[in-house]
Design brief:
mainly alpha
Length: 63
């Protein structure tokens, strides 16, 4: 596994926190991505999915 840089992990953490604020039952990930994430952090849907799968808090503690 490649080691991620601190700035990359901080960006991932910001996206994850923004996602968790808006995630509620009945709201799809695609809607959250298009409405709240992509206007602030321009990225593809695949990158967004990758960001959600990274344990950024844990990796930041290791740095």
């Amino acid at each position: 596994m490649a080691k991620h840089s601190k700035n990359y992990l901080l960006r991932v953490l910001c996206v994850q926190e923004l996602y968790s604020v808006h995630k509620k039952p009945g709201i799809s990930d695609a809607y959250i991505f298009r409405t709240f994430i992509q206007p602030v952090y321009p990225m593809s849907k695949r990158t967004f999915s990758t960001y959600l799968g990274i344990s950024a808090k844990k990796e930041l503690k290791e740095i």
